[in-house]
Write a structure and sequence with these properties.
The chain has about 230 residues and is mostly beta strands. A hairpin with a 3-residue loop joins strand 2 and strand 3. The longest helix has 13 residues. The two termini are about 20 Å apart.
C-alpha cells in the first residue's frame, strides 16, 4: 500500500502539449503537470473531477501534478511516474502473490541495453525481471494496452524473452487503472506489440493487477485479477 501526498480536487478543462492539463480549482484556472505520456483517450472528459498534488520544490516550473481523474464514477490513477512506487510498495507488502517471500528488490535494473523496472530475488533463490505497464484505456468490457504505438514496449518484450538465457524469470506486469476485470492487448492500435506478446506467451509470465486508488485517503494498493 502506497501513501500518497495530500490530494486536492478540481474540474478537468483540457490537456495540451501532452504534459499540461488545465483544471478549474475553485474560481481559478490552474495548470498541472501531467506525467502520463499515453493518449489517455478514454478518460479525459471535460468537467471530470481531477485529483492533484502540490510540490514544495521551488525549482519546478509547475508546482501542481495531476494524480488521477474520476470517470464514470471510477477513479483512475494517471501518474505513470509513480506507478512503480505503487508496485514496489505492493511487493514489500506481499500484495503481489508471485513475489511473496522475496529476498531483495532492485529498481531500474540494468540488463543489456535496457533498464527493467524491477529485479526481485525470489524466495527460491531465482531472480525475476519485472517490467510494469500502466493501463488506462478501456471500453465497456476490457482494459487495453497499449493506447498508442509503443516501440519501447516492444523492445521490453524482446529483452525479457532474452533474459531467460541468463537464468532470469521474466514477468510483464500490467497495472489496470479502470474498473474492468478483463485485459486484452490492443492489436487495433499496435499490432506488432500484440503479436509479439502473443508469440512470447509461453516464455514471459504475464500477470495483471488492478490498482485501487482511494484519493480521499491518499493511498493506492494492488489486487490481483484472475484473467490476464
Amino acid at each position: 500500500m502506497l501513501k500518497l501526498k495530500e490530494l486536492y480536487f478540481g474540474k478537468f478543462l483540457k490537456r495540451y502539449k501532452r504534459f499540461f492539463v488545465d483544471i478549474l480549482f475553485g474560481d481559478e484556472v490552474i495548470t498541472l503537470h501531467n506525467p502520463n505520456t499515453g493518449s489517455m483517450k478514454t478518460i479525459l472528459e471535460r468537467d471530470s473531477l481531477v485529483a492533484f498534488s502540490i510540490s514544495d520544490n521551488q525549482k519546478r516550473k509547475l508546482k501542481y501534478t495531476m494524480e488521477g481523474i474520476k470517470v464514470k464514477n471510477h477513479w483512475f490513477y494517471t501518474n505513470t511516474i509513480a506507478v512503480n512506487k505503487i508496485v514496489e510498495a505492493a511487493i514489500y507488502d506481499n500484495e503481489i502473490s508471485e513475489f511473496s517471500g522475496f529476498h531483495s528488490v532492485k529498481r531500474e535494473f540494468k540488463y543489456k541495453d535496457s533498464r527493467i523496472d524491477f529485479m526481485v530475488k525470489l524466495k527460491n533463490g531465482k531472480n525475476a525481471l519485472i517490467e510494469v505497464k500502466n493501463v488506462t484505456m478501456f471500453d465497456n468490457d476490457f482494459a487495453y494496452f497499449p493506447d498508442a504505438t509503443t516501440t519501447r514496449g516492444l523492445k521490453h518484450l524482446n529483452t525479457l524473452s532474452e533474459s531467460i538465457t541468463d537464468g532470469f524469470i521474466p514477468y510483464m506486469l500490467y497495472v489496470i487503472q479502470s474498473p474492468n476485470d478483463k485485459f486484452k492487448c490492443a492489436d487495433f492500435i499496435d499490432k506488432d506489440y500484440c503479436n509479439k506478446l502473443k508469440e512470447l506467451k509461453e516464455i514471459i509470465n504475464v500477470i495483471v493487477y488492478k490498482n485501487i486508488f482511494k484519493p480521499e485517503k491518499s493511498l493506492c494498493y494492488l489486487e490481483k485479477l484472475n484473467q490476464p
